[in-house]
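INFO batch 0412 | record 1 of 1 | parsing
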Amino acid sequence: MAGAMSTLIVAAALVVVAGIVAAALRRRKPEPPTQTRWAVPSQLDRADFVHPETPWLVVVFSSTVCDACQQAIAKARVLASSAVAVQDVSYQERPDLHTRYHIEAAPTIVVADPEGVVRTSFTTTPTATDLWAAVAEARFPGSTPQCDRDHDPVTG
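INFO prediction complete | emitting tokens
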């Protein structure tokens, strides 16, 4: 009976030690960094936006109180042409569209094709070069140098 009691005490001590080790390991493990991902629509109803007859659409979902949004709008407006409609959709003016498309961050920029399929997007203010290249690549796949990875500039 004494042998069984000492075995039980040893087992209980091992459980306590294991619990202490587990608690110490949990405290040492740092929390993972925040991994925020903003929702971006994958499809737009072109009738919700200006010039649904224009083949391509660039929408800047913005806010009037956002400095980065003003920069994004300015960069996007340069893309306007007979083939590309550009529209600023301010939350203050069109909260219905922000809600409909589940826009959670401003600026959110989407590039949609004639059927409203979102071909590329940004949830930050891109550089003008990145935005213009993204629209060019959406319209003409393989047209931007970074996307022509199989092309050898030396041998052609």
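INFO post-check: The helical segments are 2-28, 67-77, 95-100, 128-139.
INFO record closed
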